[in-house]
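Hey,
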Amino acid sequence: MMSLVKELYKYKYLIHELVIRDIKKKYRRSFLGVLWSLLNPLLMMVITAMIFSTLFRFDIQNFPLYLLCGQIIISFYNESTTFAMSSIIENSSLIKKVYIPKYLFPLSRVISSNINLLFTLPALFLILIITKWSFPIGTFSFVIPLFLLLVFCLGVGLILSTVAVYFRDIFHLYGVFLTVLGYATPVFYPESIVPEKYMFLFKLNPIYYYLKAFRQSIYDGVFPDISLLGICLVLSFAAIFIGSIVFKKYHNKFILYI
């Protein structure tokens, strides 16, 4: 662990440059730039809220806030893991030229996605203010599930970036998986509409736990349940542990396939 910390400190400037590069790349030639991180979730929320609150009439108090919480979590997971998946292949020319710890590339992608997420938080608090929704001190505990989700995404990103080097079809398969995951996560619908016999599907979905903890902070204004955070902690630890093992086992052969 200490050697890892020392290595991260040694390459902190490189990580910084990689993160800045990823953010600039995302908003290259964009007139509004990072403002899209604020506008995009708001626009998506308005459109989705109009459709589902009118057609389906879900009995959810402050539906825009409920919806935006879900969109932020699922969007962060989708973006961070998708970007991390292609990080090794897209940096193949750099990897072939100089020695750089290869895990820095998926790490920088997840960090840059996390920064993009932070840009969307003003939209969340704007909705809190517009809808006159109270946000007590418990609201600010949202950073805990977000941090645990970041660790989970890094673990998943390490696995995906490894698999992508050897199996390029993963890009197409993962896109289908994300679509299924989006519908299997209660982003725009309440849990109450799901029959009891199908609730086990939620329990198989790791994003469900992070979203639930995040909503308890933002939507309910309370500190997330300790048991719920415990599940999130176990999932994050398991993901980063498995991801590290898989990545370490195969990273020395990356140069032969990229």
